[in-house]
User: Which sequence fits this backbone?
């Protein structure tokens, strides 16, 4: 277990390094390094690791469709809530999130919703789930979420990325598929893109998602017995130690995040 976590962590450190190199460059070379930052760590990890854990499909079993559909607005609402709380907290200390999205909607969705969703799900969900043993799904969820959040190297994004990482890894383990997290990730990014391009839609969109989340959460609670299998990843297996490698990544990530915040 520790060896696998160390390998995954080193691959994520490679991701941060390549991303930093990409950010320091311009033109086609920057784009190539950017995409390589996501693809290379996954290929290296899969090629060098002998351990294989959970297998993931590209589809959703019939019995998992309803729980998944109900989980989508709940998941997005939780991610949005933590993003909002983080923004409020950082704003109280005088920091402002300066991320801006421009351009036509189709291109913005492609560059900021679809492509990031596919690349990040491969690196932060498929790779950990595929490599880590199935004795402790809770540890798999924790490691996936922790590395996903730390690799954002942004104090505005780390808290809600961790919450999102827990949810995204959990639904994949529950369904045995990479498709659920990909869909949720894409829809969440899509909402961010749409509300950044059209600020007037922010309140109506999030009120709608919030209402849907409450209805679905109530339905999941009332029909809990029907979704026991969907809840099983949190109750299966024995917890295992995962070593000190994530602490090294946390130190690097937080140093970069704080440096970026102060320099801005």
Assistant:
């Amino acid at each position: 277990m520790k060896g696998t976590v160390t390998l995954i962590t080193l691959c994520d450190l490679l991701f941060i390094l390549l991303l930093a190199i990409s950010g320091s460059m311009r033109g086609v070379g920057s784009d190539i390094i950017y995409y390589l930052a996501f693809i290379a760590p996954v290929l290296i990890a899969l090629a060098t690791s002998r351990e294989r854990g959970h297998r993931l499909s590209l589809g959703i079993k019939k019995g998992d469709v309803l729980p998944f559909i109900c989980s989508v607005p709940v998941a997005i609402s939780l991610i949005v809530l933590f993003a909002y709380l983080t923004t409020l907290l950082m704003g109280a200390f005088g920091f402002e999130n300066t991320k801006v999205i421009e351009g036509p909607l189709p291109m913005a969705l492609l560059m900021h919703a679809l492509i990031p969703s596919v690349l990040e799900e491969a690196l932060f969900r498929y790779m950990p789930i595929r490599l880590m043993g199935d004795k402790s799904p809770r540890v798999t969820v924790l490691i996936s979420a922790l590395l996903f959040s730390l690799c954002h190297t942004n104090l505005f994004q780390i808290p809600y990325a961790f919450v999102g990482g827990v949810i995204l890894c959990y639904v994949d383990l529950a369904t045995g598929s990479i498709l659920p997290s990909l869909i949720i990730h894409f829809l969440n990014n899509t909402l961010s893109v749409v509300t950044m391009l059209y600020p007037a839609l922010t309140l109506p969109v999030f009120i709608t998602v919030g209402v849907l989340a409450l209805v679905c959460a109530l339905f999941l609670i009332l029909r809990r017995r029907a979704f026991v299998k969907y809840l099983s990843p949190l109750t299966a297996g024995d917890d295992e130690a995962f070593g000190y490698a994530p602490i090294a990544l946390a130190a690097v990530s937080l140093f970069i995040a704080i440096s970026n915040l102060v320099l801005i």
About this structure: The chain is about 75% helix and 0% strand.
